[in-house]
Amino acid sequence: MQHDEVIWQVIRHKHCSYMAKIETGIFCRNQYNVTGICNRSSCPLANSRYATIRDHDGVFYLYMKTIERAHMPKNLWERIKLPRNYEQALEMIDKHLLYWPKLLQHKVKQRLTKMTQMRIRMRKLALKTREVIIPTPRRDIKREQRREVKAEKAALLDKAIETELLTRLKTGIYNDIYNYPESLFNKILDDGKKIVNEVEEEDKEVGVIEYVEGDDDELEEEMEDMEDFSGFPSKESYLEDSDEEDEDDAEEQVVIHKKGRALKKSDDNGKSKKKSRVVVEVEEEDGGTRALKSLKL
Amino acid sequence: MGFKRKKGDGDGEEMESDGRGKPSFNGGGQRHVILPSMIKNKDKRSKVYAKQKHEKKLEKQKKIRERDAAEKRALELGEEPPQKQIPKTIENTRESDETVCRPDDEELFADIDADEFNPVLRREVTPKILITTCRFNSTRGPAFISELLSVIPNSHYQKRGTYDLKKIVEYATKKDFTSLIVVHTNRREPDALLIIGLPNGPTAHFKLSNLVLRKDIKNHGNPTSHEPELVLNNFTTRLGNRVGRFFQSLFPPDPNFRGRRVVTFHNQRDFIFFRHHRYIFDTKEIKPSDKGKDGVAQERVKPRLQECGPRFTLKLVTLQHGTFDTKGGEFEWVHKPEMDTSRRRFFL
Q: What region holds the Ribosomal eL28/Mak16 domain (chain A) (predicted)?
């Protein structure tokens, strides 16, 4: 007995597991559905004579079901492999669905067309390279960030770079480079004459005994604490020597301490006395060097 | 549970000095240490725990005091102070890796000779870099790329069309580039760096993080166009060596020391920190130290650094032999999450 109508009434008005209602329409999730819409004429359960096209690994099969086999669910669906050629597949469909209702034939052919187009497109895309997004669990991302911060702290980058540069300097690859100390460069720029004079004077006074009062005038004035006394300038490097003293001379003329006294003490752990000065307002002949001076501190 | 487990039952074999049960089960003569977790009463348990903690603290303080006293005594007597203990760091306790390069490894030298970077590093070819992006560019991408262009000499930028990466590799090889750098973007931030050596060099994929552009660095300097010096720190293993040479092949092999530019790739715990500085050597007087050494004021040379250029961190994700080919390529090293399980194991 044909009871498609009863089945349809029950399914549609009571409950069908394959039905999916979304805002754009009512769809059927059944794999054998031709159109994909939940309809009286498209429901594979409510039609005893039905046909679909399904796709297995890129090969299309025509599935048919007839009333005669309705009582044998195992052999219900008849499957025919369709040729790869689109026209030949169409002909084959025509042959098999010859005396079937026009609507079904039409829908089956439409489905074949759509699936062929999709197959072409998927194959084209598979040839192209596409970016694959690989998600990482948040736990891993956080862990990496934490480890990076700790690694950065452990790295002591500035120190490492400085030691590396120092070792390179010691091996002597920079030897032919004029790597001048900045202070000397400044001095030469400002008062080249003064250096020349100094040189001449000292040459004259070699060997002559002189009694000089308050020899360490400059040193005493700047030196508030015994702690800050960094020792007498050594005679090792002549240039550096005259360089330091001259600079003190120039600075001494116009230096303005801010609140320097109290601040001067404890963190002077062996740095030069110039470093201990907090503010240096230096009025010198050449205003342009002021910028360089501020860099120094 | 139907029954209470008798204390000490089944644990009889594993009697350690931190005894498990009540004192009666411990061997005679050992100190009776009660694990607080055995006590069910919360009040009593917390008291016992606090007391144990306090005792431990006192012990530690005593040890420190003894050590200091011993040191002081030794100094006063003029003897050598006792050896200072070296604190354990992750670098100290790193798992020993058999792939660490040894200075006399012949296999290493042979590998280096047969390397892909040899033509560049032997000054036969000057490096020429092509920089491009992924298909979508980001907010900070162009700024980062312009800074990269200033850091790496002889580098060029080209916009990415919708070309396949493999096509771009072919194009670059035809135009005689030695390396191709692809700056990859994720969420509007440069996220990854893909460095491909050409013509058939390895492909390294790095994760990029912590990018700071030049304008965001305080007191930054402006780099010149002299060839920079390279500093590659801590690339110890064979893999690290290879990556280090890869970075080396991006830069011209003859640095111009007059330019006083230094580019640093510092590897710490598998993170490669990139820094770009200008340096100068300063001589400074230092006070004589009062530890009994010579009393003459010494002058020391100290380098001073001024940071210029971008600052970022790289982490190697994959290293592939040959040019970019994810499907068919041979991967020399791939990072897998299971490699992260040990905190003391590093690969670079």
A: 6-118
Q: Could you report the per-residue pLDDT of B43-68, keeping only the tens digit for each?
A: 999 999 999 999 999 999 999 999 88
Instruction: Output helix, strand, coil percentages for chain B, rounded to the nearest 5.
Output: 30, 25, 45
User: Pairing state of beta strands B155-157 and B330-334?
Assistant: unpaired
Q: How far apart are CA B176 and CA B199, in angstroms?
A: 8
Which is nearest to B163 in space by CA: B148, B182, B177?
Answer: B182
Interface predicted TM-score (ipTM) over 0.85: no
Nearest partner of A31 among A48, A43, A47, judged by Cα:
A43
Q: Where are the alpha helices (DSSP H) in A176-277?
A: 182-190, 192-204, 217-222, 238-254, 260-263
Residue B256: in which H helix or E strand, if any?
A: none
* Contacts with B282 from chain A: Cβ below 8 Å: 181-182
pLDDT, position A126 = 87
Q: For residue A101, which of A31, A44, A35, A50 has the smallest C-alpha distance?
A: A50
Best of B227, B287, B343 to disrupt the A interface (most A CBs within 10 Å) is B287
Residue with tokens 């965001």: B216
Q: How far apart are CA A70 and CA A76, in angstroms?
A: 6
Beta-carbon count within 10 A of B125 CB = 14
Best of A139, A149, A157 to substitute, by most chain B Cβ atoms within 10 angstroms, is: A157
Residue A121: which pLDDT band, with cuts at 50, 70 and 90?
A: very high
Contacts 24+ apart (CB under 8 A), A169-176: A169/B281, A169/B301, A169/B303, A173/B257, A174/B257
Weakest-pLDDT range from A77-81, A261-265, B6-10: A261-265
Please name each of the domains of chain A with its CATH number. 4-125 (3.30.390.110), 233-284+292-296 (no CATH)
